[in-house]
Specification:
heterodimer; A: 12 strands; B: 480 residues; alpha/beta; ten-stranded mixed sheet; six-stranded parallel barrel
Chain lengths: 246, 480
């Protein structure tokens, strides 16, 4: 599904990713771990197409397409979803209206019919229950006045509704208490199937107790310095990152 | 990052969608203004003598006045002798039914997406359409008549209800008020008149669609709304204009009188031709709008201003009666080389008077958008309260937003609050929308509409949707 080859990126001329290789197949969950400043969030944002990050070398292929050539909205329409580390507030725009607009844009781009408000509300009911989302949050402005946990849960809720093929979770666990973490993990696990894939970017092993990855990669200094199975996460938890820095 | 700004700019730079000219023969006076022009207008319209006198008095006053120079707008000197002060569609001004209306005109409405016939049926909106200065279609009159509500053109009002007009015309905006109001008083060709009797709640939104059509024709509308004691009326004014190369002058006057316990809600969506992307052409919009509140009365102005190359407009409320309330909700959007200097005046005279101001300015392109507001608490106004919120949103980095709040408080029990913010559309917000599948243009439109929500929710439903569409159209090309 996703194949990253020798990816190099820079922000304002400073090189952040220095040759990343990563292959994600359908049905897999990959965890990208690493200390602060290692380039984890950069990788997540590059996949989503954030403009500030320039791809200076290498390639990203997604379902056979050159991802680098696509605009962020085209990537979203083709099934890439980024759960933001810091979800953005949009005052005056109701959460449900925003989500329906997104939902319909993605449908339109894929030659499907748009869905009206009533049908949409029916469709999202089960997804709300999945992430135990308070109904009141639907009509509040997008992320405005949401607590940190509510924002993250809202991201997973959007993910559940949009049903992406490739989900990238950028530090979704940061700032979450245990209950919220459990809810978020339940959402991700329920949505997981043989046709989609998930890339989880995280600093801590905590989230991986709830969402069990197939592969764990350690990013350090803009490179993947170690890859392994789920046991690697535990090893990192025990030993920290220092032993990999040498 | 720079391409984001370019995209923002390109959305603001889309062409005006409503630029077309309807081919209807016009019957016009030659250009120029003198006493004879004023007399001719009054005579063409068959006005009573007091009206001719009133116009002449205004004209004489106007000759002594100079154009105000304090607004933050720039434009070439207007030659008032080159303007045509009267033009009317050749066919008779009154029709019994839509069938008799010039089909060309109906087509114009169709292009604007406001088919009169459909509106009549679906929306239950009585439409008094002002087209090139003469009312050509008035609907729902009988229904309103049953309640004693008068909704007609100013010309008809002068014929059928001269006493009411005489009593209230100029009572809020005197013929000598300011340069543009005096000009309007001298030469106004038509407009709307509304009278709602005591205790009557007008059951439908009253609406007038204005259109400026004949080339070089100054449009001088005069609107007078009188809500008698304990009555309620909501009035909608919506405007679009065909595309023009030459600047057109528009100097309207709107007067509202809310007697004891009465309420008037006046909503405007203004979408006159703003000029092209190089600032060529466009309407000069110099409007005087003012309301007078008697005891316990309430006047709300809601405006969505997206058009005109120059906007000079300060819908105001004189809170004369005790416990009266004045409100002003405004969205002013400027793009390309548009210039807007708009705001409100709240004059607190009575005790316990309240006013609320919410102004949302959006500037894109090379435009300049100024909020200018006066809150004045007179000595007599015990316990007056005002709250003002003035927000400015910038799109791109070549536009300007300015706020000029004037506050005068002459009574120590008064409480006046003013909050102002200036922000830019965040790239984070746009990226967030992009990542959810929205393109940048949609993202900006969504964000801007959200920003204006507080004002839009004051508009009647159909109008709110129209306003959102208009804003999206106006934003087109502002995002690059």
């Amino acid at each position: 599904m996703l194949e990253i080859k020798d990816l190099r990126t820079a922000i304002e001329g400073k090189e952040i990713l220095k040759g990343i290789n990563l292959k994600v197949n359908k049905g897999e969950v990959h965890a990208i771990m690493g200390p602060n400043g290692s380039g984890k969030s950069t990788l997540a944002n590059v996949l989503a197409g954030r403009e500030d990050y320039q791809v200076t070398g290498g390639s990203i292929s997604y379902i056979g397409e050159d991802l680098v050539e696509l605009d962020p909205e085209e990537r979203a329409q083709k099934g890439i979803f980024l759960a933001f580390q810091y979800p953005v507030e949009i005052p005056g725009v109701s959460n449900v209206y925003f989500l329906r607009t997104a939902f319909n844009e993605i449908r339109k781009a894929n030659g499907q019919e748009e869905v009206d408000a009533a049908t949409f509300l029916k469709r999202i009911k089960a997804k709300m229950e999945l992430v135990e989302m308070d109904k009141a949050l639907l009509n509040r402005s997008v992320n405005e006045g949401f607590s940190g946990g509510e924002k993250k849960r809202n991201e997973i809720f959007q993910m559940a509704v949009l049903e992406p093929q490739l989900s990238v979770l950028d530090e979704t666990d940061s700032g979450l208490d245990i209950d919220a973490l459990r809810i978020v993990a339940k959402g991700v696990n329920t949505l997981r199937n043989a046709n989609n894939a998930t890339v989880i970017v995280t600093h801590y092993q905590r989230l991986l107790q709830y969402i069990v990855p197939d592969y764990v990669h350690v990013l350090y200094g803009g490179k993947i310095v170690k890859s392994g199975g789920k046991e690697l996460a535990l090893e990192l938890e025990e030993k920290g990152y220092d032993w990999l820095k040498k | 990052m720079s391409s984001e700004i370019e995209h923002l700019e390109s959305i603001a730079n889309r062409e005006y969608k409503y630029g077309f000219v309807t081919d209807i023969e016009a019957d016009a006076l030659p250009p120029g203004l003198n006493e004879d022009t004023v007399k001719a207008i009054s005579s063409i319209k068959g006005e009573p003598a007091f009206m001719t006198e009133w116009r002449l008095k205004a004209y004489k006053q106007w000759q002594k006045m100079v154009e105000p120079k304090w607004p933050k707008v720039e434009y070439p000197q207007i030659d008032y002798q080159k303007i045509v002060y009267y033009s009317a569609p050749k066919k008779g001004p009154k029709y019994e039914s839509l069938d008799e209306v010039d089909p060309e005109l109906l087509k114009t409405y169709d292009k604007l997406g406001i088919p009169l016939a459909e509106q009549k049926l679906l929306a239950g909106v009585a439409v008094d359409a002002v087209f090139d200065s003469v009312s050509v279609a008035t609907t729902f009159k009988e229904k309103l008549g049953e309640l004693g509500i008068i909704f007609c053109s100013m010309s008809e009002a002068l014929k059928n209800h001269p006493d009411l007009v005489k009593k209230y015309l100029g009572s809020v905006v005197p013929a000598t008020d300011n340069f543009y109001a005096s000009l309007n008083s001298a030469v106004f060709s038509d407009g709307s008149f509304v009278y709602v009797p005591k205790g009557v709640r007008c059951p439908m939104e009253l609406s007038t669609y204005f259109r400026i059509n004949a080339q070089n024709t100054g449009q001088f509308e005069r609107t007078l709304i009188v809500a008698d004691e304990g009555s309620y009326v909501s009035y909608l004014e919506g405007c679009t204009a065909p595309q023009r190369d030459e600047n057109q002058l528009h100097a309207a006057v709107v007067e509202l009188v809310a007697l004891k316990d009465a309420q008037i809600k006046y909503s405007t969506v203004q979408n006159w031709y703003p000029g092209d992307e190089n600032g060529k052409g466009g309407i000069y919009n110099f409007v005087t709008k003012r309301g007078l509140c008697h005891e316990n009365a309430k006047i709300s102005w809601t405006q969505v201003e997206t058009g005109s190359s120059i906007t000079w407009k300060y819908p105001s409320v004189i809170l004369k009666g005790d416990n009266s309330i004045g409100e002003f909700y405004s969205v002013a959007m400027t793009n390309n080389y548009q210039q807007a200097d708009t705001g409100t005046k709240m004059i607190h005279i009575g005790k316990n008077t309240r006013s609320n101001i919410v102004s949302k300015g959006i500037s894109a392109g090379f435009s300049n958008n100024s909020y200018r507001g006066l809150v004045k608490v007179m000595k007599s106004a015990e316990n007056a309260r005002n709250f003002s919120q003035c927000d400015s949103l910038l799109i791109g980095d070549k536009c300007g937003a300015h706020t000029f709040p004037y506050i005068e408080v002459n009574n120590t029990t008064g409480k006046v609050e003013h909050e102002a913010t200036t922000s830019k559309i965040g790239e984070d917000q746009i990226f967030y929308c992009n990542q959810r599948g929205l393109d940048t243009e949609q993202a900006v439109s969504l964000i801007v509409n959200g920003y204006c929500k507080e004002v839009f929710r004051e508009l009647p439903m159909e109008f709110a949707i129209e306003a959102q569409n208009l804003l999206s159209i106006s934003l087109e090309g502002s995002v690059g």
